[in-house]
Specification:
Layout (H helix, E strand, L loop, with lengths): L1 H23 L6 E6 L4 H17 L4 E6 L2 H7 L7 E5 L2 H13 L6 E3 L9 H6 L4 H9 L4
Parallel strand pairs: 1-2, 1-4, 2-3
């Protein structure tokens, strides 16, 4: 029972992180949020490269990329414009946001760029003949 109480408290803290992002960027149904919790540079680089395509195919006004990884921020600088924003958080805030996401999906356009979080997807790439681009567009951004 203590575990559930702790998980619920963390989800509430994650909700607070979500609400701050939502307020800061005036988040609406026409917005997307993409969380980058992974340290996998190749996966992150490809996902960042595909962000403009994701935004256009999903008819989003803007996308907020959330990370705690300085390397991701550096790559994001290549695509950040008036429609793609970068929000740097602390690692604990990203983790709390993911815990909230596992409990309540706060937006239809909430994506997590990771093969581990929130549920573990690494077997898709190992067991099937899927490259990063197909994995990101299909399993993460749900564009295909």
């Amino acid at each position: 029972m203590e575990y559930l109480e702790k998980e619920f408290e963390q989800a509430l803290a994650g909700r607070t992180v979500w609400l701050k992002i939502k307020e800061k960027y005036h988040f609406t149904n026409g917005c997307g949020i993409v969380v980058f919790p992974s340290e996998d540079e190749a996966l992150n680089r490809e996902a960042v490269r595909l962000l403009p395509e994701y935004r256009k195919k999903m008819f989003l006004n803007k996308v907020i990329a959330v990370t705690d990884n300085e390397a991701v921020v550096n790559v994001l600088n290549n695509v950040v414009d008036q429609n793609i924003y970068c929000e740097m958080l602390r690692q604990d805030e990203v983790n709390l946001l993911l815990i909230f996401y596992r409990l309540v999906i706060p937006s239809a356009h909430f994506s997590v760029v990771s093969m581990e979080e929130p549920y573990g997807n690494s077997n898709l790439l190992r067991e099937m003949d899927v490259d990063f681009k197909d994995f990101i567009l299909s399993a993460i951004f749900k564009v295909r």
